């Protein structure tokens, strides 16, 4: 219990530091003004531009990347990497397309807070926290799929604010989603190269706990930012 309190205190302190330093950039699902303008003014199918914007989103969507770093952290076999990433991709794709094409809506602050929670969850799981502190081990594959649904929905809520034309919308959203997956493959390739190199060093397991504590702190910061946004928005 002392270890748990010490860990939670350290993670909370790191989260505060993340929040203070990076508060202006924590809205990871925000759409850049130029991109939003393109979404609004474009009429008809535009496969190439939407694929590019999808890939760009993945490289700038650090909430996705933080979660996937946590997912990949202890995966050594390519089969496992492909399996878990495929589950995330499935969930992400379903809610992205459903949210934009079918108009399914939810409060974006709450959705993005859950996305921050997904980072906290995976980092805590990597530290064997569920088994050590609660005596249980949740199904990681189910968790990755469920959180993938929230990650896709988070992007959908941002795109819903741009009032895109219905002309060519299906083609454009499919293209955007393909771009997201291409971007994800490229980003994760870089992550795996770094992780595989680090794993060959003697200090990998020694520093794995600290790395996941930092990852968890980033997740807490994302959650805190969205919760403050929700409360501020509700009060206004």
Task: From the structure above, extract its key features.
single chain, mainly alpha, 10 helices, 80% helix, disordered N terminus
Topology:
Layout: H1 2-22, H2 33-41, H3 47-60, H4 62-72, H5 78-101, H6 108-126, H7 129-134, H8 140-160, H9 169-199, H10 204-235
What does this structure look like?
- The protein has 236 residues and is an all-alpha fold.
- The protein has one domain.
- It has 10 helices and no strands.
- Helix 5 packs antiparallel against helix 9 and helix 6 packs antiparallel against helix 8.
- The protein starts with a helix and ends with a helix.
- The N terminus is likely disordered.
- Helices and strands: which structural class? mainly alpha
Q: Describe the sheet with the most strands.
A: none
> How many structural domains does the protein architecture include?
1
Mean pLDDT across residues: 86
Global Rg: 18 Å
Terminal residue distance: 40 Å
Strand proportion: under 5%
Instruction: Enumerate the spans where pLDDT stays under 50 for 5 or more consecutive residues.
Output: 1-26
